[in-house]
Amino acid sequence: MKLKFTKMHGLGNDFIVIDAINQSVSLDPATIRRWADRHFGIGFDQLLVVEKPGESGDFRYRIFNADGGEVEQCGNGARCFARFVRDHDLTRKNTIRVETACGIIMPTVEENGEVSVDMGIPRFDPARIPFITQERALTYPLNVNDREIEISAVSMGNPHAVQIVPDIDLAPVTSEGPAIESHPFFPEKVNAGYMQIVDRTHIRLRVFERGTGETLACGTGACAAAVSGIARGLLDSEVQVTMRGGNLRIRWEGEDQPVWMTGPAVSVFEGTIDL
Q1: CA distance 254 to 121
Q2: pLDDT > 90: what percent of the chain?
Q3: Which of the residues 82, 110, 164, 223 has an alpha carbon 20 to 30 A from that of 143?
Q4: pTM for the whole thing?
Q5: Is the torsion defined by CA of 72, 74, 80, 86 positive or negative?
Q6: CATH 3.10.310.10 domain locations along the chain
Q7: What is the DSSP letter of 58?
């Protein structure tokens, strides 16, 4: 049996997107890992699945990392998801109500082709991240590889640990990232963000993603970094986030307000693969 897919990317964070409404799809972790292999498979950071909704959305959006594990949220994937359902005539709406494992998101396809996404309200309560600590704080000490770092912990539907570094080009992302990802204080593991503040409206960012490794861009990571900087009074409410794959615009007006993310979503090619 052959399965149709579309290869897409958001700032180099790459995906395959599968329409599970108009074709039968049955996935398992071993199959996903095989397809994710960049030498022997298709190659991708995450696999996105478009499904029929429950009672509260236009579509259901599921996300699987390259290791085969299902996760709650992916910001760059959300933009690609929105472009996919529009480009494949699954909807004519500009603003789409999408069910995810962590709640409803509302992506909007703009006239210039970019996609803006209401990513929901960030969570700082440690129990909802989840993060093991005594009480909520703006920053927390974390012992990693025999040194103490200072992080902000926030959930954008998935957990993030964000630290400020003087220069992301010199940050120990690949050596330290795996230790943060699997730190015992994060029982569901965590995405490790490294943020360099350029000025109050501009940051540079690298992210070691849970279950994937470092990617060229991370949408929820960009949201988490901007939100942590705004909460600490270091950034203004609208921030440009520069990652290796390009730029996102993040806007957050403060506590109990949703985070808005705007950026591109690009289709690369369409293909089929044997199940």
Answers
A1: 9
A2: 91
A3: 223
A4: 0.89
A5: positive
A6: 2-119+264-274, 126-257
A7: S
CATH 3.10.310.10 for the 126-257 domain, yes or no: yes
Q: How far is residue 66's CA from residue 54's CA, in Å, rounded to a whole number? A: 26
Per-residue tokens: 215: 């990617």
**How sure is the predictor about 274, in pLDDT bands with cuts at 50, 70 and 90?**
confident
* H or E element, residue 142: strand 140-144
Residue with tokens 């996760």: 71
Amino acid at 38: R
CB neighbours of 255 closer than 8 A, spacing ≥ 6?
A: none
- CA-based nearest residue to 180, from 232, 216, 241, 221: 221
Element (H or E) spanning 239, and its range? strand 238-243
For residues 20 and 50, the answer to whether their CB atoms sit within 8 Å is yes
Q: Which residues are catalytic?
A: 74, 218
Who contacts 132 (Cβ-Cβ below 8 Å, separation ≥6)? Answer: 126, 184, 185, 186, 187
Residues contacting residue 68 through CB under 8 Å, at least 6 positions apart: 28, 29, 30, 31, 32, 33, 36
pLDDT-derived band of residue 102, with 50, 70 and 90 as boundaries?
confident
Instruction: Report the amino acid identity of residue 7.
Output: K
Buried b (16+ CB within 10 A) or exposed e, 52-90: eeeeebbbbbbbbbbebeebbbbbbbbbbbbbbbbebeb
Domain 2-119+264-274 has CATH 3.40.50.1390: no
**Beta strands at 2-10 and 266-274: parallel, antiparallel or unpaired:** antiparallel
Token look-up 């993603």 returns: 209
